[in-house]
Each structure stands twice: as structure tokens, then as C-alpha cells.
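User: Okay, second chain of the day. Same drill as before: sequence in, C-alpha cells out.
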Amino acid sequence: MMNIQEIHKYLVDFLKTEFANAGFNKAVIGISGGLDSAVVAYLTKEAIGGLNILGVIMPYKTSSPDSTADAMLVCKTLGLRSRIVDITPMVDEFFDVDRHMNHIRLGNIAARTRMIILYDLSARDNALVVGTSNKTEILLGYGTIYGDTACAINPIGDLYKTQVWELARELGVPEKIISKVPTADLWNGQTDEGELGFTYKEVDKLLIEMIDNKKSDAQLIEMGFDKEFIEKVKNRIKANEFKRRMPLIAKLPK
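Assistant: Same drill. C-alpha cells below.
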């Protein structure tokens, strides 16, 4: 298994190669003030330079001011071009469609609104949208299809959340961002682990054994994992498989 220094170098080289292969030298990244987008911004700066990156900060009216401040800190520290776009007017228009909007639907609308903005700015700047979803989120379906999971290239999609924490320290991401409670900042008091019902540390230990090491349920139980926890995680992975693949196209018989 690669150590964190090797992962660091590999991902920077990956970005350099894929930007060159696609014929682009500019990037657009949604900077949330959280860990994942900070790590992606740090990696992308090493690959193509800070002046070639537009960091887009997209708060909603319920977003924490600390998130915007932390996002600005990342952009300023790395010397990125930055822009703040308040998505509140756009998202709130959907309340005219349905006044009974719940948190899940509102979160999806916010995520897709942000991606519309990122792709529009990428078209303006002839840039690639760089994704910020990690492997834990992707496997568990903890993301909005055609929202925060949409991108042209994703350097951290094969890193578990706990690996992203480790890489953040390797990259020199500010400690206040590394140590903050993970949240999509979609509504007041929302946290990733509160929604998931378990911690990233707990689930990553299981996912590494289940997915990477291909351990059976019996082996996982023997290792000390709770049977109900195993089933819960497996069911989430299966239920969200549709988010991890391109749209299915019916192939007509020849």
C-alpha cells in the first residue's frame, strides 16, 4: 500500500497528466471551507498553479459564516482567484414550486445549484470542474447525483475520509479546517456523521476490510464488526449503486 507521501505525489502527477490530456490548464473548484475541497485545492495548485484556479464559494442563507471564512482562508493561502456567489435567491425560488420542501430536497437543490454555477464558470473560463467527493461518501451515496458528485476530474475519489485527513496534514492544510466537524453545511446543526449515524473512522475501518480486502461477512464478524452495522453499510452501498455509474442506456439488439 502507498504511504501518504507517495499518494501525495501520485495525485499531483495524476492531475498534471489529466489536465494535459484534456487540453486544459485552468480549474474551477467549489471551496466549501471543509476538508475535502481544501485538500483538492492544495493538490490542484501544485499541479497547475494557483493563478489558474478559480475557487468558488457558494453560501446559502443558513450556511455558517465560519465556512465562508475558512473557504476564503484556503483561497488566500493558496493564492487562488476567488468568487463568492450567494445561492440563496436561486434556491429559494424553488419554494414557489413546493412550499412543503424538506431538508433532503433542499440540500439536493442547493448542491445542484452550486454545480450549475461551477459548470457555467468553467465554460466561461475554459476550465475543468475538479470534484471533491471522497471514497467513503461515494460508496455510501452521501452526495447529490448531478450535484456535488458531478465533475470532470476527481483526485480524491479513491481516498477514504480518514485518508483525506491524513493527506491534509501532509499538504499543510490549516489545522482549524482539519479539526472541524465534517458538515455539508446545508442547514443549521447538520453534520455528516449525524446524518450517517456513525463516524467516518468507524465506517472506514469496515469499508477497507469489506471493499479493499474483500472480507466475507463471517470474517468481518470474527474481526469484531457488529452484524447490524455490516448490514446497514452493505445496504447503503447497494442502494446507492446507481449514483456511481453513468446513466444506463438501452442497447437495441442488432
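The first strand starts at residue 27 and ends at 30.

User: Thanks, on to the next one.
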